[in-house]
Design a protein that fits this description.
439 residues, 5-stranded antiparallel β-sheet, alpha/beta, binds aspartic acid
């Protein structure tokens, strides 16, 4: 059994957290490959080391004063090192880093040092080999992740290694400069390593006990999702539920390696298993609910629209030409609505309206803003009758007016549009009917 374990920034924010991480790793021999983030926040108002590095680099590369922020970065590491009683000394590394900042080695290089240095400290603490991600994770000339080259070299490099720490978040370009993934990208590194060693499991350790059925800022103490499929996860993430970097799914998914989201501060909690498919029945009919505010519905009406060949294309062409991607497109016989992101739509609103008039001569165009979309997601919905009925009666009881309904063809989700002001009421009503009432 081989497990790849990735620890997020809050799991490695202090010496105390490092100790928890080491206990977790030592508790299971299968946890052979470790991917750390940079030290994150120790408390709410704290600053992540990654953010300090960006700030420090911005100052140093512009010839401004960077010394005090650099000192704070050094202090974060030195505090961890001394509290753990380690003898590793990062002074040389700090000197190289400072010189590279002044020499304008790039923002990505700067940010990557957070993981690099943390990886060195963790490897020392665990007694594991340290493998610089720049030597095993590659990007191509366009800056896209080079999956094939990485997998070949990384798999060969790790083949005869018993235990190693590979820092997350970065790799190297063909010209040997450093490039990072987007923010939160250590999740992606973990997934890449899991694929390369053909792990049985990719454990992603963070500070929550898994994916929650609904947003805890809206629902008090929501239940944890025990098992979720990649497709369900994608639906929920798209609607704003975040725990895992979106790109972290691809490498392991292809190999059929499940991901287990676990809590460093509560290691005995089961967490959430993310799997390709499962015969396990979800605890509730729905797996999760997520939503986003700030959409606009552009509704176009034209008599006999249904007979006009190419009508839909002509409308969508206008949105495309204005650089707008649409979220949903519910349609009737003589009406069609295009749902777009309000902030984007506002930029080219008049051009879009003029374009629609020009292209299709509609009878009317109506615009409704401040719409929230809610996705009710669940593989269990396919085989359960009456899910939609239950959702809409719950919303009616909560006095929420439904503006739009869209059921994905996979029967995996039902998307509901409500007014922004009804968002929380709607989410609560749906959560209550399926989870609190346990149906
Ligand atoms: N340290 C990086 C960030 O803050 C990457 C990560 O934590 O995954 O975004």
């Amino acid at each position: 059994m081989v497990k790849v374990v990735k620890f997020g920034g809050s799991s490695l924010a202090s010496a105390e957290q490092f100790k928890k991480v080491a206990d977790i790793i030592h508790a299971d021999e299968a946890r052979r490959f470790v991917v750390p983030s940079a030290p994150g926040k120790r408390f709410d108002d704290d600053t992540k080391v990654t953010d300090m590095l960006y700030e420090c680099y911005a100052a140093a590369s512009k010839g401004k004063d960077y010394k005090s922020i650099l000192q704070k970065i050094k202090d974060r590491y030195n505090e961890i090192i001394s509290e753990l009683g380690l003898s590793i000394n990062l002074e040389k590394e700090f000197d190289i880093m400072e010189a590279c900042f002044i020499g304008k080695a790039g923002r990505d290089y700067a940010a990557s040092r957070g993981e690099h240095l943390n990886g060195m400290v963790l490897a020392d603490y665990l007694g594991y080999e340290f493998i610089d991600a720049a030597e095993v994770i590659f990007f191509d000339d366009n800056g896209s992740f080079d999956a094939d080259r990485t997998n070949e070299i990384l798999a060969a490099r790790l083949e005869n290694v018993e235990n190693a720490v590979i820092p997350g978040f970065y790799g190297s370009m063909p010209n040997d400069t450093i490039k990072t993934f987007s923010r939160g990208g250590s999740d992606v590194t973990g997934s890449i390593v899991a694929k390369a060693v053909r792990a049985d499991l990719y454990e992603n350790w963070t500070d929550v006990s898994g994916f929650l059925i609904a947003d805890p800022r809206v629902i008090d103490n929501p239940k944890v999702i025990k098992t979720i499929t990649y497709k369900e996860l994608r639906e929920l993430s798209y609607m704003g539920a975040t725990v895992l970097h979106e790109d972290a799914i691809f490498p392991v998914r292809k190999e059929g390696i499940p991901i287990n989201i676990k809590n460093t501060n509560a290691p005995d909690d089961e967490g959430t298993m993310i799997v390709e498919s499962t015969s396990k029945k979800p605890d509730y009919t729905i797996t999760g609910i997520a939503g986003k505010r700030g959409f606009t519905a552009v509704s176009i009406e034209k008599d006999m629209m249904n007979l006009e060949l190419g009508f839909g294309r002509k409308i969508l062409e206008v949105f495309e030409k204005n650089g707008l991607s649409f979220e949903h497109m519910p349609s009737g016989i003589d009406t069609m609505s295009i749902i777009v992101q309000q902030s984007e739509f506002e930029k080219t609103e008049q051009e879009v309206l003029a374009g629609i008039h020009r292209n299709t001569q509609p009878d009317s165009i109506e615009i409704e803003s401040d719409i929230a979309l809610i996705a009710v997601v669940g593989r269990g919905m396919k085989s359960t009758r009456g899910t939609a009925g239950r959702i809409f009666s719950a919303l009616a009881h909560a006095h929420v007016n439904v503006k739009m309904i869209d059921q994905g063809s996979s029967e995996l989700n039902i998307i509901i549009g409500v007014k922004d002001e009804d968002f929380e009421k709607a989410l609560t009503a749906i959560y209550d009917i399926f989870v609190t009432a346990r149906v």
